[in-house]
Structures are given as structure tokens and as C-alpha cells.
Amino acid sequence: MNRTGLVSKFAETVGIEKASAIVDDAMADLGISGDTEIDDTDAQDICDIIQHNNEGYVALVASELRVQLAAQERFDALLGNIPNPAVVVEFEQREPYVKSINEAFADTFGYDQTDAVGTELRTLLAPPGANSEVIRTDWWEQTGQSEQEVRRTTASGEIRTYLFRSTIVTRDSSQLEGYGIYTDITERKRREQQLKHQNERLDEFVSIVSHDLRNPLNVASGRTHLLLGDIEDAAVREGLQEVAAAHERMARILDDTLTLARQGRVVGETTSVSIEAVAADAWQQVETGDATLTIETDATIEADAERLQQLFENLYRNAIEHAGAECTVVVSAPGTHENGFSIADDGPGISPDDRELVFEHGYSTNSDGTGFGLSIVQSIAEAHGWSVAVSESERGGARFDVRW
Fold first, then answer.
1. 130 in helix, strand or coil?
2. Using alpha carbons only, what angle is made at residue 245 by residues 242 and 247, rounded to the nearest 5 degrees?
């Protein structure tokens, strides 16, 4: 605030002539000449002198003005320390004019901080290949606070993408003032685009593998079973049964490989789902033989229901594979101070030395296993932001604890 601004503040109360005299006297007391440029710190000192030397409304105005100047000084310091480009604007007919910019704005977009003040914002930040009118709508498209992606040309001529956050407030004088911050998200957008392309290629790969391998495998498996129905020679039947078993193993490997290929993608939309319902549905999708399932929880969680069911299915298959077709599987909730669920069986369990290894791709103690089942379980858990660990169950079998 300069001398003219100070005089105008006091003139609202005592008139221009007395206001000029009050301000000049205070400046003289501080040894500041009338034509000297003053900053906000000087202005605060002048208000302090005026408050001390006067009474009534003049002293009250000086006190309030000093508080406002101190607040503005703190705000300017905060603005200057923001690492992202930031701008303060005032509006004339909804047109944003620069009131101040921080150093990051000046460096990023190539404008002198002093020269930018009073300039139409859209003349400084015209979007590449677009009408500068869009600068105005950046502020007015939404009332109050807004957040949107914008593209702007930097001082080096590079076009970059920013997340523009803005807010409009009403000052004491009923003058609207806007605050905007530009956060550079160019690299993030590039990574998102790369991830999108990778997922598209992954989908294409999964589709090709699923179609081109599963179809001939189904044909081979079907023909083998037809032959088994016609062949009576014991030796030939034994050989065909080995071929059929190999086909089934190939199908399991194919299913698990395709499942793993899909794990690179984040979970889908999460909803509140019942652990009991998902656990029961998963049991119906697994060949459980004479095994039994007990569910001891009615808790609900936020999850991708389809992938959660897949987690349960893999843990059930693991239990039946290692604990036997007559095992008992228990799904339960943890203690009162933990969030999650557990799946336990009454089989031989997993030795402490192997508990860290079981989640590795391809690790299996069963010659017929693919070694992917528990790796898939861990991938699904981590995709939800959960953890999974293995320990010993109360019945001496394996217990898998999923926690968040």
C-alpha cells in the first residue's frame, strides 16, 4: 500500500485534507519523505504512529488498517513460498485481472512479477490452440471452489497440463478476489496414458491367449475323453488318462496365467459387500468334494466383489489340495482390535520356513500344482490395499490372515 492508498483509507472518515495531514505527519515522524515508495511494513508503522497520536475513529481506522496490512503481509509471504505457480486476481465484469503472482508463476510462465500486476490474466495464459476466453470460464464455470485440468504454454514454449484449483471470495469492500494455484500433472497424465495403453495391450494379449490356446486345448481334451469312452485296452486307457490329466493341468496353468496377467490392473469399483455372502458363493465355484465350510463372521467390507470371490476360491482350492478332500475350512473375523478376516483349515499346515515362499510365483509343494494360486491371493489383497500372511490355525492347519 502506498501513501495515496493510506490517505484514501483515512479520508473515508475525516476527509482528504485532514487524512493527508495525518499521514504526512506520521511519515515525517518516521523520517519518510512524501515521495518515498513505502512497503506494507512501512505502512504498518505509519498506522501505529497514527493510532498513538489520535483518538476516536482515526485511531480505530489506524488499528484496523494495521491488522489488515499485517494479515496481507503474512498472506504475501505464504503465497511467495508456495512451490506451485499461484495467482491472485480481482474482477472487472467477471474478467480476472492480476493482483499478484508468486515467483513460481513468474518463472514457469515467464512474466515479471511487477509487470504482471494489473494485466488481464488471459493475456498472460492464453491456452495453446484455444480462444483465451477459456481463462475467464476457468474461474466462473463453478461457484466457490473449483478444480479442473487445463493446458498452458510455459516460458520455454512447452505445453504442459496443470490441475488448476481456484476459489473466489468476497472482500470487506464487497470486491471479489480470486486465488488460483497451478499444479503440474503432465508426467502423471503421461503415466496414466501409458498405463491405459499397457492395459489395452494386456487385454488384447489375454484375449488372444485365451482364445488361441483354450480352443485347441478344449478340442484335444474333448477328443481324449471320447476315446476313453471307446477304448477297452487297459494300457491304452492308462495312457489316455495321463493325456487327459495333462490337459487338465494345462487348463489350470492357462487359467492361473491369465488371472495373473489381469492382476496388473487396479481393482474395479468397490462396494460394501458381505464377507459371508462372498465366501459362500466362492465355495460353490470350487470342487470341494466332502470338505465342509464354516463361516463365523457377518462383517461387511469395501471391496471389488468379483476379485474378493476369486481370493476366496484360490484359498479354498489351496486348502483342499493340501488338507484333503474331507477337510474343514473356517472363515472367521479377527480379534476386536483388528480389521480383516481369516481362512483356516485343519490340514498339515505350512512350515515356518515355507511361509514366506508360498506367495512367490510358481512355488508349490504339489507336483500337480501351478504355484500361482497364493500369488494371485496376495495380488488381489494388495490391489485392495490389504496385507495377507500365513500362520498356524487352531487345529494345526494353515491359516491365512487378510488385514487392513
1. coil
2. 110
- What Rg, from alpha-carbon coordinates, does the chain have? 36
pLDDT in tens, the chain (404 residues): 678 888 888 888 888 888 899 999 999 888 888 777 788 788 889 999 999 989 888 899 889 888 888 877 777 777 878 899 999 999 888 888 999 999 999 999 999 888 899 998 888 886 666 566 677 777 776 555 678 888 888 999 899 999 998 888 886 666 788 889 999 999 999 988 887 877 777 777 777 767 777 888 889 999 999 999 889 899 999 999 999 988 887 887 787 767 666 655 557 789 999 999 999 999 998 989 899 999 999 999 999 998 899 899 999 999 998 999 999 999 999 877 789 999 999 999 999 988 888 888 666 666 565 667 898 899 889 989 999 999 999 999 999 999 99
Tell me which residue has cell 487338465. 248
And the C-alpha cell for 257? 496365467
Topology of domain 266-403 in CATH is Heat Shock Protein 90 (3.30.565)
Q: ∠204-210-214 over CA atoms, to 5°?
A: 155
Provide the CATH topology of domain 82-184: Beta-Lactamase (3.30.450)
Its pTM surpasses 0.90: no
Q: How far apart are CA 398 and CA 359, in angstroms?
A: 14
DSSP 252-300: HHHHHHHHHHHTTSPP---EEEEHHHHHHHHHHTS--TT-EEEEE---E
